Each structure stands twice: as C-alpha cells, then as structure tokens.
Amino acid sequence: MFDNMFEKYVLSLDLSTQQLKLIVLDGQLKQKYSTKVEFDLELPEFRTKRGVIRKCNDVVVAPVLMWVKALDLALDKLRASGCDLSLVAGICGCAQQHGSVYWKNNASDLLSNLDPGRFLHADLATAFSLMESPVWMDSSTSLYCRKLEDSFGNSEKLAQTTGSRAYERFTASQIAKVYDTKPGIYQITERISLISSFLASIFIGGYASIDHSDGSGMNLLDIKNRKWCGEALEAVAPGLKEKLGEVVENLTVLGQIAPYFVQRYGFNPECKVVSFTGDNPASLAGMNLGAGEVAISLGTSDTVFLSLEEGTGGLLGHVLCNPVDSSLFMGLICFKNGSLTRERIKNLCVGESWDKFNQILETTDVGNYGYIGLYYDLTEITPHIQGEYRFDPDGNLISKFPAPEMDVRACIESQAIRLRLYSERLGYSSGHSSSILITGGASSNTAILQIISNVFNAPVYTLDLPDSACLGAGYMAAYALRQSDERIPFYDYINQISGRKRCLLCTPDETACKVYMQLVSKYRDCENKAFGIYYSRLTP
User: What is the catalytic activity of this protein (predicted)?
Assistant: First the structure.
C-alpha cells in the first residue's frame, strides 16, 4: 500500500516525566500533526505533581495506568485533529530512561486480546503486578547500588562493563529493591519492561524487546557485546534474564501494529512498529550528530551528548549504545547547575538585564586575568560538590574577586571549560571536523556561545529543535522503514530527506582559544582543590 516514501507518515511518541507527546511526520520528515497530554492537568485523578508521586525516603513513582490512559486520550486527540491514521506506515517512540514496568503473570494474554470497543486502561487494569513504577527521580536505592558495585569488585569495573557506575535511578538497583522488599510482587511478575518497551508492547499486542540504547541505561547490559551481563543479572535478582527477555538492536522492526489499533483508530494493518528507545538516545538521533560533533543543551541542567567510537565506560557520565549506528556508542553527561546558576549570577552582578550581563562578557578580558570561579548552587552530580569557590591567578582560594563583575565572566568561562573537560573525559577530541550544536534556553545568547566556541576551538551551530527526542524517534521510524536496501548512513539519510539546515552562530577566535588551552589545566587544579575543601568541611 505504501509504495512511495513521500506519501506515508510516521508516528512518533515521547513519554516524558510530565506529558505524553505525539507527532506525525510526513515523507519529507516535516511535522504534520501533533498533540500532547499533560498528566497533572488532564489526568488529575492520579494525583501526580509534575508527573510523579513523591513518597517518603526518596521514593518517586508514577502510576502505570496514568501512562496507559494518556495514550488513550492522545490517540483520540490525534484522530480528532483530522489526522488520517491509515497513512501511518511506521511507529517509533521514546520514554524517560531507567524507569521500569512490571507485568503480571499472564498479562501477555491481555495484550494479545485487547478489545477495540474498550479503552486501553480498562483492558489493562489488571495487567501489572506493581501499579506504581519507580522512575528516574527515585533515589531510594543506595544500598542496592553499593551491593551491585561490590559484586563487580568496585564501581569502575561495573562502569567498564555496563557503561556507568551504579546510580540510584538505574533499573538494576530498582529491580533489586523490588525483589528484596516486595518478593511477592517479583514472584508474580512475568516480564519487566523499561518504560519505552512497555509503550511499544501495547502497540504490538505482546511483549516488546528492550533495545540496546535504552537497555544500556540499566547497569545490566554489557555494552561491548550488547548482551545482558550475567554477572549483573545474578547480583540483582534470580530469574531476571527470563523476566527481561532478549534485547534487540535499535531500529529493529518488532512487527505489525496490533489489530486493536486497526479496528479502533483506523491504522493500516501493514503499519510497522520499530523498537522504542530512551529519550536521551532519541535526542541524539533528533539532533543527527555526526562524527566529531558535540551537542550541548543549555537548560536548567546543562547536558552534553556525543557520538563515540569506543565504548569505554568510566566513573564520569554515561556511555550508552548508539541508537542509530550499532558500531558506535554515545556519551552523555549532565550538570545540575546550568541556567539557574547563570541567572543568579546575572541578578547578583547586574540585576535583571541580560544585555548588561552580555556587555560585560563582550568587554572584559578573555581568561578573566587568570581568576577562576566555580559555582555549585545545587549539589552537583559530577563532581559531587556544593558551594562557591573563587581562586586567584596563583590558584589560592579567595573570598571575592577584585571587582564584582568578574563573577560574570568567571561563571560562564568555568561552565564552558567544565563542558569541554568532561566531554574529553568521555572521549571527545577536537579536530578540523569538530563542531558544537547548541540547543536549549541559552542557545540564542551569542555572548555565551562565543565563549563556548573559543573554549572548544570549534564553530557553534544552533538548530530549532523544541522536541528533539520525539523528532528523533520519528527519524528512527523513517530510517528503519526506508524503501532502499542501500546502506546509507542515518546521518546522511536524514539530512537528505529533511533538508534541515543548521545556523552558524559563531566561530572560534584563535587568540582566545590559546588562552583557554592554558586555563583548562588550571581549572582542573581548582576543581580538585574545591572538591577537597568541600569534603574537609563535611568531616567533623
């Protein structure tokens, strides 16, 4: 039925913390339709706040049936908007990473016999052994993190195998907690899905396999051979491999859409479902990063994405399987202290005006005369530190700078150097083909971007991508279903079809680059000193 690539649609879904978003792309990968369901606003019966329920002892969960009901509502909205769902040839999606869904024994029978006359949330009301899923904001599993790392000998060995040290939000520690504290629930659980594969399971009417990229955010997958790590499985819970099922490559066609969606919503029975993935891997696909490129999202948190040739996990950040090229990996590192810290320094130094803030950046000396400031309003993820630290050109800790406005440049320079330093530790190396792709709230501030360009010694581009994860999942569906057998790389295919252009914002200044080359090692020394000071203050 779909002989011409340009006559068919792909449907993409993004199940994030606070909402479910759906977009429909046409054959040129342009958005035709979109809709969303905001959990707090449109599903108040689940009593969530910002999409989750916070309980005592750092427990954070979300109701599974809320997500199912959101899918009911979103598909009804999409159909009501005039979208002809019979033109959808492929479906792919993504979801918040690390969260887990627990299917009850015989839930597969419910999935395969969905009644098109009923809502999904009614048919699946008894499908789950655990009605509230632990999500990425949960930090209640420190005990199980330590046990997992101890089973490998230390945290570094775990990271080398699975791509990350043990984190409280990661699925392995969450499953271990369920097995330990709710053994009856674990016993009656037939399948454990990630949130992404849970959503895919509904569309195929059976258990969908976890994909390599999202699976590598669990502390359970050996990222080099892309198989479950037996040592990790044994350390978490007995019989876990059977409950997880097999993993599959990204871009795998899982099968055709379930009859339920054909009969209830008018989907074509030939519509294919492509393996779903995590939101961060999908964002990498949406930004369509090529070799030597780094994507930086400047938001409440600052996040670095990059494509890597080597999958050597370490204690800093995360290494995941690349979502669009099985021979590559992706690096990811997140810093809590981003835009809110920049805004606080602005308000402290110049008041409400970003123009005055930028004027200081543009008129003060590159390198800040050797003065360095480190600003951790929140306890940072990497390094694990909190507070403000100012250093003079000789590396001595000082209480304040000679001039208050020096904090402006110190804040932006230290954040930019931090981004470069940790990108390099993940595997980034600058070269002639290097470039930086900026997204997020600060992506229009050229004064900040010029400093980033100079620190990385690379040109900075921007791309208007308000929904990079959802768009990336759509790109993945289109690529997986491409008509040609030609082995065209994902990067080239998406550029060829979409025609999406990046906007060059700034290029590096050679003189400034040399200054920052010298500052990187000084920054590293100051960060180490601050780290020592912070922990000496904690010690009685």
Answer: D-xylulose + ATP = D-xylulose 5-phosphate + ADP + H(+)
Query: pLDDT tens for residues 498-516?
Result: 877 788 999 999 999 999 9
Which tokens in the block code for residue 280?
């961060």
Residue type at 141 in one-letter notation: T
Mean pLDDT of 34-62: 96
Tokens of 299: 């938001």
Superfamily (CATH) of domain 339-424+510-538: ATPase, nucleotide binding domain (3.30.420.40)
* Measured CA distances, 185 to 46, 67, 128, 129, 178 (Å): 22, 20, 10, 6, 7
Rounded Cα distance between 420 and 429, Å, is 9
> What is the number of residues in the chain?
540
Residue 3 neighbours by CB distance under 10 Å: 7
Q: Residues with Cβ < 8 Å from 81, sequence gap 6 or more?
A: 33, 35
pLDDT value at 215 more than 50? yes
Write down the residue that tokens 């839930």 correspond to: 107
For 472-506, what is each residue's pLDDT tens digit? 999 999 999 986 667 899 989 998 888 777 889 99
- Nearest to 98, CA basis, from 133, 47, 140: 133
7-275: in CATH 3.30.450.180: no
pLDDT band for 234, please (50, 70, 90 cuts): very high
Q: Return the residue matching tokens 């859409």.
A: 257
Task: Give the position of tokens 């009901």.
Answer: 69
**Tally of CB atoms within 10 A around 372:** 24
Structure tokens at 214: 């999202």
Closest residue by Cα to residue 346 from 281, 253, 441, 426: 441
Neighbours of 393 (CB within 10 A): 12
Q: How far apart are alpha carbons 507 and 408 in whole angstroms? A: 22
Class (C level, CATH) for 286-336+430-506: alpha beta
Q: Is the dihedral of CA 401, 407, 412, 415 positive or negative?
A: positive
Give the count of beta carbons closer than 10 Å to the beta carbon of residue 72: 16
CA dist., res. 403 & res. 364, Å (int): 11
